[in-house]
Amino acid sequence: MKRAIIISAVGRRTLHFLMEIGRLAILLYRIILYTPRLIKDRGLIVEQMLKMGVNSLPLVSVVSIFTGAVSSWQAAYQLQGLISFDFLGASVSAAIFIELAPVLTAIVIAGRVSASIAAELGTMMVTEQIDALETLAISPVRYLAFPRFTAGWVMMPILVIYSYLVAHLGAFFVANLLLNIDANIFFRSVRNYFSVYNAVAGLIKALVFGAGTSLIGCSIGFRTRGGAEGVGKATIQAFVYSSAFILISDYVLAMILF
Amino acid sequence: MIRLEKLCKSFNGHEVLKDVSLHVRAGETLVIIGASGCGKTVLLKTVIGLIRPDSGRVIIDGHDLTKMNEKSLFAFRKYFGMLFQGAALFDSMSCSENIALALKEHTSLPGEEIDKRVHAMLERVGLPGVGSKRPSEISGGMKKRVGLARAMIMRPRILLYDEPTTGLDPLMADVITNLINRTSHEVSITSLVVTHDLYHAFRIADRIAMMYEGTFIAKGTPEELFHSTHPHVREFLSKQPIQKKSAGKRKELK
Ligand SMILES: Nc1ncnc2c1ncn2[C@@H]1O[C@H](COP(=O)(O)OP(=O)(O)OP(=O)(O)O)[C@@H](O)[C@H]1O
Ligand SMILES: [Mg+2]
To answer: Cα(A183) to centroid of ligand 1, in Å?
Structure first.
C-alpha cells in the first residue's frame, strides 16, 4: 500500500518534470523561429541587455571580489607547507575561470534575472496585458520572450568576463596585502598557467546558464495565473528552477567539457 | 460578419458558455447585456481568439477563427480592436506609447505622423495632455479611455468593447457613448459592446442580446427587448431607468 503511494508520487513528479522540459522545449522552439527578427527588434534586445547588465553589475562586483578574495585565502591555507606560494596565482586563477566566476555569477544573476522576468511577465499575464498584446496582433513570444532570451544568453558571458577580472583583482588584493605575495610573482603565475580553453569553457557555461535561466523565467511568467499571489509563486518557482538548472547543467557541462 | 455557432466553454468543469450562437451583421452595433459573471467577457475573448472554445465555431468573414494557426490568427487580429474591462494598459509604457505601439509595430509611418495620430486620438477620447503619463498615474476612467484610444488607433473593422462606460462619470460616459456611436457610423465598424449600463446600451445599440448563465435568452432591437415578456429580461430591465421614448433611438447626447 505504502509502496504504491510512493511509486505514484515518484511517477507524478517524473511526469511533471518531463512536462516542464517539454514546455521549455516548445517555448525555445517558438523563440528560435523569431531569430530573423534579430536586426529589426534590436531596440528591444538592447533595452533588455542594458537592464540585465546594469542592474546586475553591483551584485556581480560584490560576489566576484569576495569570491576571488576567499579563494586566495583558502588556497593559501591548503597549499601551506606543500608547495611554494609562487603557484597560488595559477591555482586560484584556474578555479575562477572554470568554476567560480561562471557558476557564482550565474547563480546570483539567474536568481535575479529569472525571477524578475517571471515577475514581470507574470504580472502582465494576470493583468491581461499579454492578452492585450495579442489583440494588437503582436506575438508575446516575439515581443517579450525573444528579447529577454537573447539578452540572457548574450549578457551572461559578458558579465562573466567582467567577473573574471574582478575576481582576479580580489584574489590579488588578498595575496598581495595579507599574504605578502609580490604582484609580479602572482600575475606571472596566473599568466604562465593561463589556458584559453578554460576561459572559453567558462564562457560556454555562462552562455548555457544565461539561455536556460531566461527561458525558465519566460516560461513560468507566461504560465502565471491567479493574481498577485500567483505572481509571488511564479517568482519563487523561477528562482528555484533556475538554480537547479544551473547546478545540474554545470555538472553535465563539466562532463562534456573537461 | 461575425457568426458564433454553438460555442461551449468550461473552466474546470464549470460551464461558462453553453451553446452560444449569435450573428452580428456587418456595420451593426450589437450590445450584450447580462448579470455579472454570466460569461460576457469570456464570450468577447472567445470572439477574438484569446480563449479557445471547447466546441463550436467563431466565423469572421467566412473564416473559422477556432481552427486557425497562430500566424493567420495574428493576421486576422489586425481587423480587430478590443477594449478590456480593466483597460489592460502596458504599465511599462507611457499612455502615448501604449496607443502608438500597434502603429509602430505594424506600419512604417514616420515618427511625427505617429505622434500626430496619437495626439489626435487622445483628443478624441477627451484626454489631451496625458500622453506622457504612466498608466499608474491616471485614474481608472482615464485608463479606460486610453484603452479605447489604443483599440481604435489602427482603425479596425471590428471593435469589441468590454464595459466602455463603467467607472466613468455620467458626463464622460456620454462623451464615450457618442464616440462609440460616431466611430461606428463614420467608418461603418462592426461593434460588439458588453455593458451593464442600460441607459447607454439603449443609445448605441442596433440590437441588444441578453445573456443569462452562459447563453442568450433574448435578442432583438432595443424596442423589442424593451417590450419583452421574458421574466429575466423584465427583471433586469426594471432595475435601471430607461425612458421608453429613448429606447431604440440613436441620438447624439448633448
Ligand atoms: N480564466 C478563467 N478560469 C476559470 N474561470 C473563469 C476564467 N475566466 C472566467 N471564468 C469564470 O467564468 C464566469 C464568467 O466570467 P466573465 O468574466 O465572462 O463574467 P462577466 O459576464 O464578464 O462578468 P462581469 O460583468 O462581472 O465582468 C465566471 O464565473 C468566472 O469565474
Ligand atoms: Mg466581464
So the answer is: 69
Q: Find the B195 Cα to ligand 2 centroid distance in Å.
A: 9
What does DSSP assign to residue B191? Answer: E
B248 in Cβ contact with B221 (< 8 Å): yes
User: Which residue of B lies nearest to A143 if distances are taken between CA atoms?
Assistant: B105
Torsion of CA B50, B56, B60, B66, to 10 degrees: 50
For residue B53, give every residue at least 6 positions away whose Cβ sits within 8 Å of its Cβ, in sequence order, or none.
B7, B8, B9, B17, B46, B66
Instruction: Mark yes or no for CB contact A135/B81 under 8 Å.
Output: yes
Question: What global pTM score does this model have?
Answer: 0.88
What letter represents residue A32's amino acid?
Answer: I
How far apart (Å, rounded) are the C-alpha atoms in residues A32 and A20? 18
Interface confidence, given as ipTM, is: 0.89
User: How far B88 CA sits from the closest chain A CA (Å)?
Assistant: 5
Cβ-contact A119, A229 below 8 angstroms: no
Tell me how long chain A is.
Answer: 258
CATH 3.40.50.360, domain B2-84+157-237, yes or no: no
Phi, psi (rounded to 5 degrees) for B233: -65, -45
Contact criterion met (CB < 8 Å) for A138 and B102: yes
Contact between chains at A128 and B102 (C-beta distance less than 8 A): no
Q: Name chain B contacts of A129, Cβ cutoff 8 Å.
A: 88-91
Three-state DSSP class for B109? Answer: coil
Q: Domain map of chain A by residue range?
A: 2-257
- Could you identify the atom of ligand 1 that is nearest to the CA of residue A225? 1
A180 pLDDT above the threshold of 70:
yes
Rounded CA gap, B33 and B211, in Å?
Answer: 6
Name the CA radius of gyration of chain B, rounded.
18
**Contact predicate B59/B23, CB 8 Å:** no
Say how far apart CA A85 and CA A179 lie, in whole Å.
Answer: 9
Contacts of B178 (CB under 8 A, 6+ apart): B252, B253
Question: Looking at ligand 1, which residue's alpha carbon is closest to its atom 19?
Answer: B37
Q: List A residues 50-89 in contact with B (Cβ-Cβ < 8 A).
A: none
CA dist A257 and A245 (Å) reads 17
Cα–Cα dist B208/B225, whole Å: 7
What integer pLDDT is reported at residue B243 of this predicted model? 54
Q: Are strands B29-34 and B207-212 parallel, antiparallel or unpaired?
A: parallel
Number of A to B CB contacts under 8 A, please give it: 53
Q: Which residue minimizes the CA distance to atom 1 of ligand 1?
A: B11
Q: pLDDT tens digit string along B159-207?
A: 999 999 887 888 888 888 888 888 888 778 899 999 988 888 888 899 9
